[in-house]
Design a protein that fits this description.
Helix content: over 70%
Number of strands: 0
Distance between the termini: 62 Å
Mean pLDDT: 84
Radius of gyration: 17 Å
Largest sheet: none
Length: about 150
């Protein structure tokens, strides 16, 4: 019996790398939306369970849905700030709806209609919140975001 071919090994490695990247992006997105590692971890697991295949987009969408649901059901525990690079820490200082719109549209680059649908708000509300985030973010410092996340 012949062993695996070089092409089949390469295909498995590419597939594993793609899956790993999709999970990493889903976790980072959930962490930015929720601020808490436990909520982010559980949301990614929910996303994996909800997806038949772990494509980047489907995992991301299902993880975002779970994060928003879980965040609404529990008290905020912002313990994930140290897992984020300093330039992203200040995002946690934004008001939640501003943060949601900024993360989903600017960082994750979802279309506005998808963002509004996921957040269950109108396009007008979405546009206003994104504008608010873009105006507020430069005023926040990473130090203030650290303080906000700690209590």
């Amino acid at each position: 019996m012949n062993g695996p071919t070089t092409d089949s090994v390469r295909l498995v490695m590419v597939s594993a790398n793609t899956t790993s990247r999709a999970v990493h992006i889903a976790f980072r997105t959930a962490l930015l939306l929720a601020g808490g590692t436990r909520t982010a971890e559980l949301a990614v697991l929910d996303g994996i369970e909800a997806c038949g295949n772990i494509s980047h987009r489907s995992l991301l969408i299902e993880t975002v849905r779970s994060t928003i649901r879980r965040r609404a059901e529990s008290t905020a525990v912002l313990d994930g700030i140290n897992l984020l690079p300093p330039e992203l820490r200040r995002v946690l200082g934004l008001q939640p709806i501003f943060r949601d719109c900024f993360v989903l549209r600017i960082l994750v680059q979802l279309p506005p209609e998808v963002c509004a649908e996921l957040l269950e708000i109108s396009i007008t509300e979405y546009d206003d919140a994104l504008s608010g985030a873009l105006n507020q973010l430069p005023l926040l410092s990473a130090v203030n975001a650290d303080r906000y996340a700690q209590g």
